[in-house]
Amino acid sequence: MLQRWDQRVREGRAVAACAGAAERDAGGEAGARLSYNAGISACEKGKQWQPALSLLSEMREAKLEPDVISYSTGISACEKSEQWQRALALLSKMWEAKLEPDVIFSYNAGISACEKSEQWQPALSLLSEMWEAKLEPDVISYSAGISACEKGEQWQPALALLSEMREAKLEPDSATTLGSARARKASSGSGRSRC
């Protein structure tokens, strides 16, 4: 099964590259970008972060600048493969390229990548970065941040995020409620979380 998927990813890269070249030759940069983005998306769905990042590199080599969708899909591929450092590197590259990351897709995938890898400090840094950039975190942003804190046994920041979430008039979902309940339980104990 994995071999078949690897073959599909390779074929997807080849199709994206060929379609991209054909579109550029015909003067269709938007079509070429769309083809590459489709290839990156296929890699993301298959949790294939390496081919996704290769496609992003190929875009740059072909003098075709990745857009918000290109980067965000690459970030999501890294998130699904628990490659939090690579996800954060792509977020930085988005800013360097003067592209504003999307709250729902770019930042949430970055925070989720940190959460899955039990990296609570980078998750909180991303939330701070969002506020500084005047981007409003949503329920998913807060939930992933709270979950990252819970996994890192950091109950105080988890409860602070829950409080901020309520101040922003966002309704916690079931995952947020569970994470905050565990944080409350830990805070009433010895001061250390046993989640």
From TrEMBL:
Keywords: Repeat. PROSITE patterns: PPR (PS51375). Pfam families: PPR_2. PPR repeats lie at residues 32-66, 67-101, 103-137, 138-172. It comes from the Eukaryota. Residues 171-195 are annotated as: Disordered. Residues 186-195 have a biased composition (Low complexity). This is Pentacotripeptide-repeat region of PRORP domain-containing protein. It comes from Prorocentrum cordatum.
